[in-house]
Amino acid sequence: MPMSQPLREPPRFATRHPLGVWPQLRTDPLAFLTDAARRHGDVVGFRIGPIQAVLLRHPDAIKHVLVDNSHNFDKQTRGYDVLRQFLGNGLLTSNGDFWRRQRRIAQPAFHRKRIEGFADVMVDDTLEMLRRWDDAAGLGNTIDLAHEMMSLTLRIVGKTMLSTDVCDATDQVGDAVTVLNRWADASIDSLLPVGFPTPGTLKANAASRRLDKIIGDIIARRRAGEHAEDLLGMLMEAKDAETGESMTDKQLRDEVTTMFLAGHETTANALAWTFYLLSTHPDIERRVRAELDAALGGMPPRMGDLPRLPYLMQVIKEAMRLYPPAWMIDRRTIADDEILGYRIKKGTLVLVSPYVSHRNPNFWPNPEGFDPERFSPENEESRPRYAYFPFGGGPRQCIGNAFAMMEAQLIVAAVLQRFRPWLVPGHPVAIETLITLRPRWGLQMGLVPMTSTLAAAE
Questions:
Q1: Fewest 10 Å CB contacts: which of 122, 170, 274, 343?
Q2: How far, in Å, are 173, 246, 267, 275, 278 from residue 316 at the CA level?
């Protein structure tokens, strides 16, 4: 019998630095990872300090890690160790049997029919924000659209998840989230032990305690007899179908904190980048508004309207291709593996980056261009499933993806019915690479009311 060919070692990104590619990753991770894939292709190895890592870009490799052989890849990585410091052991950070149990308990709360019941809250809170924008536009003032989206999605997640209007605490919560986001990013890049008591760590611990108190007080009131038809109520009532167990207060805290933070931060960033791209591509914006006019007839969008807004969905998907809020997914190999004919050793840090994969020129011609037609039905069908994965994939796909997409569509539709946001000339736009992709200096925008002479003359 012929002998099988030995597995190849992944091509490596050459560097003589004693810390490997750590300096490049710390300085500009998006540029480094994109360049590494451009030079070496769909599988490229490198060293980050003492850690051996591999970046995967091909859809088949992504599918192998997230779906086909997902049981061989866990979350025992430095990135997730950092997130556990303030998210605890929730769905995002947990592993193994504990994660499977938590997912079984939480999944019914995210059934599409239940999620659709939150659509009116999303629209009503957006309309309230737009009434404030009326005053700003009338005075000729500009807004920081990125900040506005953070505040809006925070308020929506507070109402839908906790039946709590966090309007009075928006700045406090938003500031805490920013502190934790920046601390997490710095800690992942650091060579110090996770949780080492630097001034930044102490500040992050204080921010985490503030959030714990807000969420803990709400859970305590529920345990004392308060009832509400929200995600927290669903999680409190849910029981494991196999064991009959429900969540403890600690488990509730971890899950609610994870969903509370991830549920507004990621959607807010996706919205901010969508409005930025529309403001710089007026022809596409006009086409979206024409679709809104035809489908809605001037009425606020509601859940039942979304199937009549296919181009709007294409626009949001394309914005998330260019600026995926969760730009990096990391795993650790539990045992030796084979990916695309390459040997991936046990203990290797495996990186899959939606930001990098969404720019693979083999599947995305003119990858830096903004073209919603990429997501027409025929074009979507022609691409491999894991050429595009803004919500991850496989058994650990984001549990809130349907919630987030519904929220994004409703908010964009409601805003564009009332205003044309335009980027203030000269305002700098750059990516801040944290756990999510934020506009580094916000997005300062003016507002043209759609009833104005200027808008009508377009």
A1: 343
A2: 26, 36, 11, 9, 10
Which helix (H) or strand (E) is 259 found in, with range?
helix 249-279
Confidence of residue 424 (pLDDT cuts 50, 70, 90): very high
Count of the separate structural domains present in the chain: 1
Which residues on adjacent β-strands are paired with residue 432? Answer: 438
Please name which of 43, 81, 32 lies closest in space to residue 65, comparing C-alpha atoms.
Answer: 43
Closest CA to 23 of 47, 43, 40: 47
Residue 372 dihedral angles phi and psi, to the nearest 5°: -60, -20
- Per the model's pLDDT, the better-predicted residue between 174 and 196 turns out to be 196
Residue type, 454: L
Q: Which long-range contacts (CB under 8 A, 24 or more apart) does 37-42 make?
A: 37/356, 37/360, 39/13, 40/11, 40/12, 40/13, 41/11, 42/340, 42/360
* Structure confidence by residue, pLDDT tens digits, 45-98: 999 999 999 999 999 999 999 999 999 999 999 999 999 998 999 899 998 988
Residue with tokens 């003359």, as numbered in its chain: 457
DSSP 8-state symbol, 190: -
Please indicate, yes or no, if residue 319 is contained in any of the structural domains: yes
- What confidence score (pLDDT) does residue 1 get? 39
Compute CA 98 distance to the chain's CA centroid, rounded to the nearest angstrom.
Answer: 23
Are the beta carbons of 104 and 399 closer than 8 angstroms? no
Which residue type sits at 416?
Answer: L
Instruction: Examine residue 250 and state whether it is found in any structural domain, yes or no.
Output: yes
Tokens read off for 416: 């564009």
The dihedral through the CA atoms of 74, 78, 79, 81 has a sign that is positive
Least confident residue range of 26-30, 85-89, 134-138, 380-384: 134-138
Does residue 451 surpass a pLDDT of 80? no
Query: Residue 188's domain spans which residues?
Result: 22-456
Could you give the CA distance from residue 447 to residue 428 in angstroms, rounded to a whole number? 18
Mean pLDDT of 206-226: 84
Has residue 171 been placed in a domain?
yes
